[in-house]
Amino acid sequence: MKNFKAPRKALTGLDAETVAGLIVASTDIALIVDRRGIIRDLAVPNPELLDELAGDWVGKSFIDTVT
Question: Do the Cβ atoms of 31 and 57 come closer than 8 Å?
């Protein structure tokens, strides 16, 4: 794995919406999970994958959504 050399310099000044867009563009599914392991938000850029998800994960424990 190779990380960025200076992420603070390159990413300084980006707002939350821009960062969220970058995360969603680089994943199949993005979850925001709180400290207790509860899914607070999710983004799925692929509509076909979204259709495959069984129910709404928001509010559920992350551990209950994975196999």
Answer: yes
